[in-house]
Amino acid sequence: MIRDLQRIQIKIASDAPAGLSLDPFLAIFARWRKEPHPAEWVDLADYAHLARGPGIMLIGQRCSLSFDLAAPGPGILYAARKGLAGSYAERVASALRGCLELSKRLTAEPEYPKEARLRTDSLEIRFNDRLETPHLESTDAELRPAILEALSALYGAGEYGLTPQADPREFYGFAVRAKKAEPLAVLLERVIRVSESEPRA
Prior knowledge:
The chain is an alpha+beta fold.
């Protein structure tokens, strides 16, 4: 039984080419860190020297945001840490909303590399808390209906497919592939309807 679902990661895939300079993200996040925000930004980490690592990370009390280079490929990674409330579906939707809000803001920045176009039809969702959400059938039975509810609000019922993370040594989660890519603003508007959190970006 899950007691307090908080640690949810959402990653939006990107077409970023190999060797993309991450300097623009360092500049953007350094500027953001100085601004008041509900995420309560506290740190900035540069892992650009790692070929398939965490990239550039902006770390907050409530969540973190990064341009991540780790498997399955480059993309914007949002990691909720605390502050989620409501039903499981509302919490998943809140994590999706946080990711979409910050991704929309990030891609609108003048420095954002245009060649790092987001693929909004390709998401990864992971639950990175081995105590609360162990990679077990019981976790899947408890969470999958909420995941389907949130993703159906985002893409439409029957408009996406899920591929479970098969390796039990990895976090419980899914690769999500939608039938079509849509603008961040469109997806954000949809997910707000099932998210109970206030706008954060």
